[in-house]
Design goal:
By secondary structure, the protein is mainly alpha-helical. It has one domain. The protein is built from 9 helices and 3 strands. The protein is elongated and about 65 Å long. It starts with a strand and ends with a strand.
């Protein structure tokens, strides 16, 4: 399968747009969670029903505004994972099974971004009428936020493998080798978060050091590292496509879902 340079340039521009859309959506989610809902740091799992009611009713309209903002931003993983898929297929040879696994896990991970604020919104909706139901929705939301153990490794490990096995210069790659090591390390960490299902206090509770604080301070720099590595790589890819000398020989870019090679020609 051969595509034109102009088509690839359009594709790269679309990827760049999706990356920036993802950053904006991530900002919406963060503002809603931190500023409007005041859920950073998380309320402890040991709160009583009356204390949970107080959390939701201290400024209910502001809290519900935060829920809406989080719901808008909760789709952040869809465009972001699609761009990662596009960049991974450039590097994966044969049928792009790792790229597809990453994309599917990213799409599934959207559920775990969307469901917690939806549950907190439901808790806010019912808190004055039935505090017990609100308490259950509140707790379920936090457990879904902290314990998506199966999903994240399935997205992170393929990225790590591609980063460590690719045949591309790290200076221009979307997945430099150092990022591969960091990604694999990050993929192992969620196993600790299973403890949040059992413990209400200590380092593995949903607001604990191992289940919340370390993952949060790993996720943000990792996510930015992947994002800006991709933007740098896209810029380099565009420079190659715009170079007149690159038109002399078709360039292999990756594979389609059907396993067909994608090449750039004139």
């Amino acid at each position: 399968m051969v595509v034109s340079k102009s088509d690839m340039l359009v594709s790269n521009k679309a990827q760049r747009v999706l990356i920036w859309v993802s950053l904006v959506m991530y900002g919406f989610f963060g503002l809603g969670l931190v500023v409007f809902m005041r859920f950073f740091p998380p309320p402890p799992p040991t709160l009583s029903v009356s204390e949970v009611v107080a959390v939701y009713t201290r400024n209910l309209p502001m809290f519900q505004t935060g829920v809406v903002m989080c719901l808008i931003g909760s789709a952040v993983l869809l465009p972001w994972s699609l761009v990662i898929y596009a960049q991974m297929t450039r590097l994966e040879r044969g049928f792009p099974i790792l790229s597809i696994l990453q994309l599917l896990a990213g799409a599934l991970g959207t559920v775990f971004m969307w469901a917690p604020p939806m549950l907190w919104g439901y808790a806010a909706f019912t808190v004055t009428r039935d505090p017990e139901i609100a308490m259950g929705a509140h707790q379920f939301g936090w457990l879904m936020m902290v314990v998506p153990v199966v999903v994240w490794p399935m997205q992170l490990l393929p990225i790590g493998v591609i980063a460590l096995t690719k045949n591309e210069d790290d200076r221009y790659s979307a997945f430099p080798r150092w990022l591969g090591y960091a990604t694999i390390l990050f993929a192992i960490e969620p196993l600790v978060e299973l403890g949040a299902i059992v413990f209400k206090t200590g380092p593995v509770a949903w607001n604990g050091l191992l289940s919340w604080w370390i993952p949060m301070f790993m996720w943000f720099p990792w996510m930015l590292s992947v994002t800006f590595s991709i933007l740098k790589s896209i810029k380099h890819q565009e420079a190659l496509l715009e170079d007149p000398r690159s038109g002399q020989t078709p360039v292999l870019l990756g594979t389609t879902l059907g396993g067909k090679s994608i090449q750039v020609g004139n």
